[in-house]
Amino acid sequence: MAGLIGLRMRQVWDLTRRHGLWRAASMVRRRLSSGPGSLKSRNVFMHYDFVRVAKVELASGKALAGTLLWFIPDFNIGSGGHQTIFRTIMHLERMGWESNIVIVSPTNHPTAESARQDICNHFFPLKAKVFMGFDGLPNSEFVIATGWQTAYPVRAVAGDAKKLYFVQDFEPSFYPTGTESVLAENTYRFGFFGITAGGWLARRLKDEYGMLTHAISFGVDHGCYRERPRREPEVKRVFFYARPPTPRRAFEFGLLVLEAVSRRLPDTQFILAGWDVSDYVIPFPHLSAGVVSPEELADVFSQCDAALILSLTNLSLMPLELMASGCAVVSNRGDCVEWLLNDEVALLTDPTLEALTDALCDLLQDDQARLAQCQRATAFARQQHWEASGDAFIQGLLAARQALTPANNDAVYKEPLHAATSV
Fold first, then answer.
1. 146 and 188: one domain?
2. Are 298 and 266 within 8 A, CB to CB?
3. What distance, in Å, lies between the first and last C-alpha atoms of the chain?
4. Less Cβ around it within 10 Å: N or C end of the chain?
5. How far from the centroid of its chain's Cα atoms is residue 3's Cα?
6. Which CATH number goes with the domain that contains 282?
């Protein structure tokens, strides 16, 4: 019996690492609600039901130009990828485009209205209507896949809607070689027009899968992420984005680097944020902040001299936010990083324990070099605005409209259409 309990605990822990706390809890609740036998029954067909969607019908009648139907995975409060999606929708709404949102199963929210309330209360106050499932969906000029799981129902959408794919990372790399990695990679061959977070993804999807792509860049919330007075300037502090459920951020590797730095510079203080890591053995003095609000995170950034940010797939938003807050960034080299960062604004090294340890120690010991890097980086970050990213997304929509419209319909789109008008 004890062995079975231990097995179930390990299974729950694995679900939490892969899917996050709230989605894991939802999955456990669904299994328990079906009785004890469900724990012995692994339903592959239910888990991958989204792959087998045969047809998604939109409302009849002509779509309005400038209307978008976003297919998204369900979300947790604080999800960075969803924040970028909702921020983009907000910008489009301000520019006269009309969006609606479809949440693809499996779902955490009990109703579409509860999901909409969470979006408005914890992300942005959107006008968009939220749908749970595929019934009663409005006809739209564009249908947009986001996470790879949503690409399958978008492929199944019937009619003339133009099919787009908002790609924020190379998702096959999120999984070991197997079912998920293959299913995720296959979505890049569906013939969608790709709008990508950065040039690395745009080039990769074009070169390896033949996708038409349009790259947009990142922005910074300058009202939140800014330089603030240091309260203890004599103390050297290092920030680390610690998120074990997200393997591409290399949590375990980062701990090894921080431990090596602490042995070399024992007076250094370390702040970890992004996840509750209280159950990890961390053999050096540190503050584990867990999951914090953007305002709290911005304050933490401004109190640190350097930050270790590891990106083994596409770059996260955090380097720009750190730079805007006056903190020097150390990161790994790679095309997935260097499409945005360079040696002028960040200390980039090979992803080895020795190189990353040396880089952090060099910055902490050389105040002049660190402050010079911070000045260049802060100036660079101040040039990055979400409004520009939103405008670039609109340019991607216009490019997709031109690329995906049949030749005999070209006359309909002689002028860029920002507001919803009949076509």
1. yes
2. no
3. 65
4. N
5. 37
6. 3.40.50.2000
Q: Which neighbouring-strand residues pair with 143?
A: 69, 163
Residues sharing a CB contact under 8 Å with residue 400, sequence separation 6 or more, in sequence order: 142, 162, 164, 193, 195, 212, 214
Question: For residues 115 and 103, what is the distance between their CA atoms, to the nearest angstrom?
Answer: 9
Residue 401 structural domain: 54-219+388-422
Whether residues 396 and 367 share a domain: the answer is no
Q: What is the pTM of this model?
A: 0.86
CA-to-CA distance for 297 and 282, rounded, in angstroms?
Answer: 21
CB proximity list for 51: less than 8 A, separation 6 or greater: 152, 183
- Specify the DSSP class assigned to residue 57: P
Contact 101, 70 (CB under 8 A): yes
- Residue ranges in 34-157 assigned as alpha helix (H): 44-47, 80-94, 112-122, 148-155
CA pair distance 143, 94, nearest whole angstrom? 19
Query: 421 falls in which pLDDT band (50, 70, 90)?
Result: very low
Q: Tell me the residue length of the chain.
A: 423
Instruction: Please give the torsion angle defined by the CA atoms of residues 90, 92, 95 and 97, in that order, rounded to the nearest 10 degrees.
Output: -120
Residue among 97, 40, 102 at smallest CA distance from 71: 102
Contact 83, 90 (CB under 8 A): no
Which residue in this structure is represented by tokens 């564009």? 142
Q: Are strands 237-241 and 269-273 parallel, antiparallel or unpaired?
A: parallel
Shared domain for 296 and 412, answered yes or no, is no
Amino acid, single-letter form, for residue 79: S
Residue 36, Cα to own-chain centre: how many angstroms?
A: 35
Give the SS3 label for residue 47. helix
Residue 74 tokens, joined: 């369900």
Q: How far apart are CA 287 and CA 270, in angstroms?
A: 6
Pairing of strands 129-132, 142-145: unpaired
| Backbone phi, psi, residue 138, to 5° | -75, 145
* Residues 336-366 pLDDT 10s: 999 999 999 999 999 999 999 999 999 999 9
Decide: 153 and 104 in contact? Cβ < 8 Å.
Answer: yes
Q: Tell me: do 364 and 396 sit in the same domain.
A: no
Q: What pLDDT shows up at residue 78?
A: 78
Q: Are 216 and 396 in contact (CB under 8 A)?
A: yes
Instruction: Tell me if 151 sits within 8 A of 192, measured CB to CB.
Output: yes
Q: How far is Cα 135 from Cα 150, in angstroms, rounded to an integer?
A: 16
Residue type (1 letter), 213: T
